[in-house]
Amino acid sequence: MRKPRRAQEAGVAGNGDRLVMIGGGMVAWRLCRQLVEHGLHRERRITVIGDESCPAYDRIRLSECLEGTAPADLALDRREWYGDHGIELLLGATALAVQPERNLVQTTLGERGYAQAVLATGARPFLPPTPGAELPGVFTYRTIADVTAITALAERGRRVVIVGGGLLGLELAKGLADRGLNVCILERSPGLMVRQLNPVASGILRAQVEGLGIAVHVDVRVEDIATNPERGCPLVVRTAERLAHPADLVVIAAGVRPRDELARAAGLTCSPSGGVVTDRFLRTSVRWSSASRSNDPHGTKAALTMHLWCRSLPLFLQSSTNPSILLSIHEPYPTAGRRRATHLGTLRPHR
Ligand SMILES: Cc1cc2nc3c(=O)[nH]c(=O)nc-3n(C[C@H](O)[C@H](O)[C@H](O)COP(=O)(O)OP(=O)(O)OC[C@H]3O[C@@H](n4cnc5c(N)ncnc54)[C@H](O)[C@@H]3O)c2cc1C
């Protein structure tokens, strides 16, 4: 039988025991798992707010869907797991605003008060200001919804243009080439994966990718995407070099940007280049003493200092992270000994 919640035993009213996680991705899931492993889910009410329609999944394995893996098989836990552990999972719910002074998160499915909030909003694809990026048949690549739409269109199309020759662009190129599509990569830099590789390694990679039958154009600047007046492919990607690449499907894989807009609007200190600034305990710049909030209907009477926490992928990879950091502030966030997770599958031969 489940133990009574400590907060209820102590007669804590309101949201004094509520932990709200904003973002229902891999990091939020990992934190839920760790709270459960340590039995801390019994001491607090946990709410996860996620704007995707499914529970957290292994985003890193997204490209497996191009090989036929069912999206549902990427799930990190079934939806029932959350309920079984008393975790409220709000799916298809967008957090619209955080009000630190009221300890309140407003979402499209209503409000939630909190004693502690974890920002785990991840990143969104960066969309360069390219005219035509909003046309049907133009996608980004981050979610199950994206890969489902891409594979559906790939069933009917023949030619794909991928804007961006980084890790995601290459994964996608390989997956779509394996499905028999004619794939072309347009990269603005002088080589592929220039952020990770030196010019020699990048050149070797390019030769390998081209050996898979994938066309690679580097040093090109996409000017716009337009509907194609000629018969055949419905789209055409035009570059400043006056090249025109017809396409049934265009995917923009030009990097990501942190989803820090909620934090900025809430007045948290953010980096000019993006992302929430935290201390080495992963605490954001906003902290209040619980005493000052005791008259607030959304406040808490729990004897906890209230913090907003910002978590990111390193937490997910840090298998030994102890979630008691949410209860105390004794342990700084460890920065050494992370596991490597990156796996580039482009060099596997054609099936
Ligand atoms: C195809 C692909 C391959 C990758 N491969 C690797 C790899 O090999 N190695 C590696 O280290 N990383 C890889 N990554 C990156 C990795 O997936 C991310 O770093 C990781 O998912 C980050 O986890 P997260 O929980 O912080 O953010 P996310 O996974 O982005 O999850 C955040 C969630 O919060 C939701 N959200 C955001 N804002 C709100 C809001 N206001 N309200 C409600 N919900 C919100 C988002 O929709 C999302 O569901 C890859 C990514 C992709 C797309």
Short description:
This protein is of the alpha/beta class and 351 residues long. Helix content is 20%, strand content 24%. The chain folds into 2 domains: 6-122 and 259-326, FAD/NAD(P)-binding domain; 125-256, FAD/NAD(P)-binding domain (3-Layer(bba) Sandwich), CATH 3.50.50.
What attributes characterize this protein structure?
24% strand; FAD/NAD(P)-binding domain; 20% helix; six-stranded mixed beta sheet; five-stranded parallel beta sheet; binds flavin-adenine dinucleotide; 8 helices; elongated; 351 residues; alpha/beta
- Give the CATH H-level superfamily of the largest domain: FAD/NAD(P)-binding domain
Question: What is the top-level CATH class of the largest domain?
Answer: Alpha Beta
Average residue-wise pLDDT:
82
Rg of Cα set: 23 Å
**Which strand-content bin applies to the residues?**
15-25%
Number of helices: 8
Unique bound compounds: flavin-adenine dinucleotide
Largest sheet: 6 strands, mixed
What is the CATH architecture assignment of the largest domain?
3-Layer(bba) Sandwich
- Would you report the number of β strands? 19
Helix and strand content put the structural class at alpha/beta
Order of helices and strands: HEHEHEEEEEEEHEHEHEEEEEEHEEH
